[in-house]
Amino acid sequence: MDSDVLAAMARWPDVPDAHGWLSLDARGRWRLHPAGDALAGGPGVSISNPGILAFIARNYGHDGQGRWFFQNGPQRVFVRLDAAPLILRQADAAGALATHAGHAVSRVDRWALDAAGRLYAATEHGPAMVEDRHLPDVLERMKLASGQPLLDAAPGWLADPGQAPDATPAIPVIYPPVSLAPAPLAPLRGPAGKALGFVDRPEPVSSGNA
């Protein structure tokens, strides 16, 4: 987090939090909601200014409840997450992964595939989803612990994770561009936020619950 942001937080510790003004879409694009309608599902306006995007990326974090926010000086601006707190992209021709904020990924502790075919990952930076444009190549590069390509010996549920039985076991897979350590891949049960520990639509806390 920027030093001037930390200084502003210390100087003005009681600035109210903001909700409904910022969202992150499934392709890692920040969207501003001038009408404050993010929690109502408003589409917002894409933020394209490189300086602003870099500022948000440096001051993006989360609290102990799994609510992600942009620390805008002394004010915490909570973010509506359309997919996950972090969106993963392939950063080079070798398939290395990086977050939408530009942080290289060197560890994935688990993978999960939901009923819609979206691939989630628990990384050292936090819960993430692989951007759809990069998903086919990520799956193509995945291997079983034996070294066999995942797609050459894919379990039946991989084609339709939503129909996988509840007792479907996870399978250890390796994504070589990130790590040679196996990590479990399993069908995702229920909402991604609940499974991976993030809040997709942080609501204001009423004074009675504060």
**Strand residue percentage:** 25-35%
Radius of gyration: 18 Å
Largest sheet: 8 strands, mixed
Total strands: 14
How far apart the termini lie comes to 26 Å
Percent helix range? 10-25%
Explain the layout of strands and helices:
Layout: H1 3-11, E1 18-24, E2 30-32, E3 45-46, H2 50-58, E4 60-62, E5 68-72, E6 75-81, E7 86-90, E8 97-99, E9 108-113, E10 119-123, E11 126-130, H3 135-141, E12 143-144, E13 171-175, E14 179-187, H4 192-196
Parallel strand pairs: 1-6, 7-11, 9-14
Antiparallel strand pairs: 1-2, 2-3, 4-5, 5-6, 7-8, 9-10, 10-11, 12-13, 13-14
Provide key terms for this protein.
single chain, 210 residues, alpha+beta, duf1285 like fold, 8-stranded mixed sheet, 4 helices
Structure, explained:
The protein has 210 residues and is α+β, with helices and mostly antiparallel strands. The chain has two domains: 3-81, duf1285 like fold; 86-190, no CATH class. 14% of the residues lie in helices and 32% in strands. The protein has four helices and 14 strands. An eight-stranded mixed sheet has the order 8-7-11-10-9-14-13-12, covered by helices on one side. The longest helix is centred in the N-terminal third of the chain and has 9 residues, at 3-11. It is elongated and about 55 Å long. The two termini are 26 Å apart. The model has no long low-confidence stretch (mean pLDDT 92).
